[in-house]
């Protein structure tokens, strides 16, 4: 199999046969103006084999699986909120009740806004109408145990700890699918997806195999803003990680970073 510059591949079977050529309409694209439940099945179609054993460790209301056939995968869903967890028990994505090397796929979608990690319950994000849907999906109204971290650091620490735990339960040929969104915290641009990729590759030894961009179909609500400093986020990401050998780093010949 050889990879082309546009992300497509030229494949041959074990018998040397070349599969039927894909048409333009068959291709799965990297960016979509659609909801999560429309994009997530495309991620699965491209990167997960039918029948795979999948742990969705932040199941929530199961929105990702809305358009996925029930029989397509061996799905094990859990959530920190016992009322949302299919098992009826509270399960922290940083401390999973699974054996090592026991899953083909882990799906991770924790809260990615620092406002959901404030220590004062009355200060949690999502109290107003503009964020009520977001809060309903990502929070049970309780303060999340941040293990000492705060603000955006709490967001990243959660992704790091949950990623390490996901690696533990994944098989050697497993796949980790992570949903996230960048944010502005304390008037500072935080490229969360870049921070996650850097940690997962440098510390966990994972390879970022793919990235999907989901653009909101509606306009984000806003209140209390008088002067805009950063572009308002209306896109998020599905990141796909595997244990494949990481490609060699690009060498920037002739570039002097000290100049």
UniProtKB/TrEMBL annotation:
It comes from Haloprofundus marisrubri. InterPro entries: DNA_methylase_N6_adenine_CS, SAM-dependent_MTases_sf. Residues 1-21 are annotated as: Disordered. This is DNA modification methylase. One of its GO terms (molecular function) is nucleic acid binding. GO terms for biological process: methylation.
